[in-house]
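Attaching the record inline, Q. Sequence:
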Amino acid sequence: MSAPIRIGEWEFTADLHSLRKADLEVRLERKQAEVLAMLVRRPGDVLTRDEIIATVWGDVHVTEEVLTTTIYELRRVLGDDARRPRYIGTIPRRGYRLVAPVRDTQDGPASPKWRFAAAAATIILALIAVVVIGARPDSARKEAAALTARADAELDLARAASAGRALEWFDRALALHPDSAAALSGRAFARIVLVSRGEISHALADALIERDALRAIRLDPDHAGGHAALGMLRMLQWDWKAADEHLGRAVAIAPPSARARSARAEFLLLAEQPEEARRMIAAAKEFAPDSAGVLMASGFIHTMLRDDAIAIADYERVLRLDPENDDAQRQLEKLARRETAESSLDRSQLIQRVDALLRKGEVRPGIVAGMFAEAGETDRALEWLTRAREQKDLSLLLVRLDDRWKGLHSDPRLRAFLAEVSPRSSLGARRSDS
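Structure, as predicted:
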């Protein structure tokens, strides 16, 4: 086994894929550990993206987005900030470098007597830990439950950064109690939020989400959170039948789950079941009237269905609960612009905005397609819709409800495209949700 290497406040054991700090241990995914090991071997050196991908992934073809997601996950575990890095720095248009101090944990004087004493102390501490853990198994479970509740509250804030923080708390809960179905499904949901926001990629996150959701269901077949998380993942993967099955199961399980109902409502909206979507999100709000996450979902659904008064009330309630919620404020501003019938983008504004998105390298094709549609650029809008379908961008399923596309709804090419991608074709006739 390789010796631990100290990186800042952490001890990293490469072949165990382990990061340890005080009493906290985190197990990295294999590729995450390999990327970190590369950085540790050459602290301070700039490693190019191509170099890292070639070394870690070898002949397997992956995009730079996969590496970006890996670095994101490493920073999250290390408690790092890309804007003010203490561990991993980004070198624009080049790659990454390790900026934290690195040293071997075995450096310094170590006589045989000292080593024996240290080893004896380690054995004694391990025996004490076994006795304490064996005598108080409920203590770890109670602490894990408290951490899970804290993570759920963070996730429910529905802010841009809250899912990342929730992920950290779920990790800590599962380090104490690996068989917590609530923490497993919560961690799966946190990653789903990050994927839907474009902060991490499907390529790496999907397997982690599926692993956690399936494990939660195996531990508790009637765990609503596990089925809801798996249903949301299947929705992101455009596996409509599986999404329908798991989300339907999630809302049928007692006690009622607001998160499961909220997820089901979003699915019904995409599946062109507007009345069922309205009823389901109303049920979610009845169970959790002060949930920012449910209220944000309700605001979005009612915005798409042009129930503007309800959407405005939802977003205003979010701001009363959480005045710092920027997403709710932005949605209210969009609704205000819609009410005043603000003029569409002209061509020069369109080009400037598209160029800005492309320079960031974080463009979602559905967003660009909508901008072209708003500007009346039909051919380019349809071209970007095709890209959106290739990337399984769910926003293209809302084209029928999106004001930016209203001038193109009669175009036979758009109508044929929407009929082809509609979930209704794979779901067929289905009963309404109660």
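Residues 108-135 have pLDDT under 50 and may be disordered. DSSP finds 20 helices and eight strands in the chain.

More tomorrow.
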